[in-house]
Amino acid sequence: MSVHASSPKKITTHTLQEMKQNGQKISMLTAYDYSMARIVDEAGIDVILVGDSASNVMAGHETTLPITLDQMIYHASSVVRAVQRSLVVVDMPFGSYQGNSKEALSSAIKIMKESGGHAVKMEGGQEILESIRRILTAGIPVMGHLGLTPQSIYKFGTYVVRAKEEEEAARLIADAKALEEVGCFAIVLEKIPADLAARVAQMVQIPVIGIGAGAGVDGQVLVIHDMLGINNEFNPRFLRKYNNLHAHMLQAFQDYKADVQSGDFPNVSESY
After folding, report:
1. For residue 68, what are the domain limits?
2. Looking at residue 1, what is its pLDDT?
3. Where residue 84 sits, what CATH number does that domain have?
4. In this structure, is residue 207 part of a structural domain?
5. Whether 190 is catalytic
6. pTM
7. Strands, E, within the chain: which ranges?
8. Which of 105-114, 157-166, 176-185 has the lowest mean pLDDT?
């Protein structure tokens, strides 16, 4: 029986908190469209992140920076229509919250009203606390994101592992505590040393979800196009490919072309 057929209990931010307390690992994947999100939800994945990684995998941009608020809402609303169980978290894109807490609140409200998403995710630590605080006062749940923060790629200049040095690690720990204290319901830690991520997960009471942050956290997240092997070019150490859809799809398309060219498709049984 599919998950959809059994009217599953919806995952909430409270559910994730209970999972951490009970030692249950949280599964999280990205999705950007109705058809893919429907399968992810049916698989029982706990959290679907409508990531600004759509800028890369859906639009072909080199970074996450170009994607707009309206484009994020388009992807998020497509995902929400597919979901019966998963918690849907929507990335707030670059430029929609940094440096202006009033604009941050306006952006978050727009996402929630127009997409139907369940929460927003924001990159950064103590420098964005005022924006997070304003958004939380509107009753909108916020997931934090520390470590490698792709929206700041031009500041860092590279996608290498973050917080390897003692000073940056201490700053990350302080940021994680600040995000918990301000009221974030969870934190994503991206591409940081596994021992540091495990320390953070033990220090805070809220769930910590890792990507390239080792196994000592409360859950994991991957970009769906990466873990399905649709993207051949992206092969970081932290990525486990659960399929090779690039090869399967390429073969299917080539077979289709050959059948069309030979006149084999459509055959008599496929015609009216």
Report:
1. 4-245
2. 45
3. 3.20.20.60
4. yes
5. yes
6. 0.94
7. 26-30, 47-50, 87-91, 119-123, 142-147, 186-190, 208-211, 219-222
8. 157-166
